[in-house]
Please model this.
Amino acid sequence: MRKYTLVLLFAMLSIYAHAQVFTMPAGAFYTQISASSLQYDQAFDRTGAVVDIPASVDQLTIHWMAQYGINSRWTVRAAVPYSIIRSTVRSDVSMLPYYLESGSLTSFGNVEAGVFYKMIDDKPFVTLSFFTSANTAALNYYTGLQSDYPVWHFKPGAGVGWAYDKSWLTFYVGADIFTGDYSTAFLSEIEAGYKPFPFMYIAADIYVRRSLDNGEACDCTMQYTSLYLNDMEYLSLAAKAGYTYNQFGLNLGLNTAVSASNAPATLVATVGLQYKFEKAAAEVGE
Model:
């Protein structure tokens, strides 16, 4: 079988650079709106094998994110995903233990808000972060569709990085701690980036999500669409590039998984538009 890759939103639509580690300068504001589209009828099962699933799924997700630098050490961030999902049941569903029908679902995903704190401002710099994801998603057991996890979850993390005029290297570790009976997951990301020109960047990322398998939440009919399953895991690679003009920018991203389980098997491309504003040093007293 063809092994495509990853998962929409799980390595987390983070085509904007430095998403998990870099803080904003005091008074700086950054916002991005991005779109990701995927279609698939195969998934990575619990063992990591790519298998056919009994429904073909089309998903379009619009993702808005904003960050603001409160001061030189504290940055706040909010993110709002919105998904339009459609599924078509294939002809081999008669053997399924659950009833499944074709349908559609349009809803918010898990709205997220949190903070970054720059603990050490040096080379390397060190940041801490904490984010809360609200249970703002929707699901439908008849179609097996859901727009995100149907519970609250929390993401504490820490990052370390080296930033230079034309390049950077960052490393992030954290956890995704769920309420309900979903398993906690270990998260990690390594990113290396380079600016060949002042108006352009390229970057490569490695993402890891590893479930602790300590939850018994029922995936029920969602196992037939592979949307936001419990004990989801992956090791993925991403390539990103961006172009900026004054305060505006265009970002592109492409994700591919080396291995995964309990996740859709499809290539995911993302495009985003950004706006960034920074106050002059005199305005913030620096």
Notes: The first strand starts at residue 29 and ends at 44.
